[in-house]
């Protein structure tokens, strides 16, 4: 189990939402750990629970069940005062740089707000720290009195990153931080995140749709489907030898820049639509679209287990 290298340990985490008479099981019993200084990529289709998992992990949503340990300490049991102190260690970079910045505040105040809340700097020191943070994300420190609408999407995302870094966190959830940006800007933001990680020893949970980008930035990758984690492995191992049929289908959709290989390669096209998370299929949630489904897939849920060293999956093919 967890050792000194583990920064975050997630145990049987669940987050359910009640909608009218129904229960939406957005995150349904997932367990994993994140090591210090690593990037754990989390991928899956829209609505699979990736972002909800990230937010529940930081207690932006209260978990329905399960536990999250930060450096061995459960954050689920902390009171408001203790949680406020813990927030310095754990931050988030949001998906939409347009929606996550207050348009009425200057960039200096957006970044400075975190310094104020935690009492980290006042007066001249505060101003210097804000300018230092803007330089850190390659923005002009002189622009601290400008408003968000005066910046491009990529620059706004850099402001969001500076805000997350203001309290010197150890762990950052990057919730699809590049999906709202132009492709040309995406690589710049990802490279910036990597440089900051190296410089400041940061640990990331990087949530994304783009599998090739996730491969590039992540040490390990987790695949989610309908609130469940279906596979988790080192980035290299997952892309070379995916075990779960859903992961195999996802990876078969990534174009390969070699026309010869691309021509002879078989695409796995999944049948049907993603079922409603309000009413997921019995047994294995993926069975209704799985090309390898067997009778037992409907009867019982597959167990999450280590199939090869460090390579976990939940699939009846490996029982």
From TrEMBL:
Q: What is this protein called?
A: Peptide ABC transporter ATP-binding protein
Q: Which residues cross the membrane?
A: none
Species the sequence originates in: Brevibacillus panacihumi W25
**CDD domains listed in its UniProt record:** ABC_NikE_OppD_transporters (cd03257)
Which family would the database say this protein is a member of?
Belongs to the ABC transporter superfamily.
Keyword list (alphabetical) reads: ATP-binding, Nucleotide-binding, Transport
The superkingdom listed in its UniProt entry is Bacteria
InterPro entries found in the cross-reference section: AAA+_ATPase (IPR003593), ABC_transp_ATP-bind (IPR050319), ABC_transporter-like_ATP-bd (IPR003439), ABC_transporter-like_CS (IPR017871), Oligopep_ABC_C (IPR013563), P-loop_NTPase (IPR027417)
Query: Which PROSITE patterns does this UniProt record tie to the protein?
Result: ABC_TRANSPORTER_1, ABC_TRANSPORTER_2
